[in-house]
Amino acid sequence: AQKITQTQPGMFVQEKEAVTLDCTYDTSDQSYGLFWYKQPSSGEMIFLIYQGSYDEQNATEGRYSLNFQKARKSANLVISASQLGDSAMYFCAMRETGNQFYFGTGTSLTVIP
Amino acid sequence: DAGVIQSPRHEVTEMGQEVTLRCKPISGHNSLFWYRQTMMRGLELLIYFNNNVPIDDSGMPEDRFSAKMPNASFSTLKIQPSEPRDSAVYFCASSARDFTGSYEQYFGPGTRLTVT
To answer: Using 50, 70 and 90 to split pLDDT, how confident is the model at A105?
Structure first.
């Protein structure tokens, strides 16, 4: 089974609108971490946001928030007030015990002016 | 603070040649990861080290690939002999191995390898 599943290969959003990028995960660990990374066309991988498995509140970082639903094993990224610079690939990732990381296949987001 | 440093940034080589990619992790980080990224296969974990010890190398495609981490501040990924299908961007990433915080992976800028 895939550890991280991102079912949206491509998404479009109007500038200034909010967008949700989906991510589901699979683990039997009790302690794990969930991450989102952004990869713009320039190629670098940029860390956006983190959610720990024991965190009861959803993580937020500026315009980014992580909608964490533990029972559903989902960790969706919400970007509010989209900007043209948000156009990029977005990767969901999970860290398990032992510091093993797993990445999803990514979602390509295009912000339309 | 310096981030993860990779060299070279670009490498063009002929099939059959040996290629060595280098990585310097962030000081104090004790986990290091090598990834390969292609359009066809996405981001693939090749190998990762904890405290300089290889923990999981199941992603290494074949015996032509080898990775070493002789000390906490240096790692190499070697391909010998190289083949055109090895053309990809190779990322090195490091993180601190601790469970009290997020300890995200910090990625280097990548090495774009082209094998002709």
So the answer is: very high
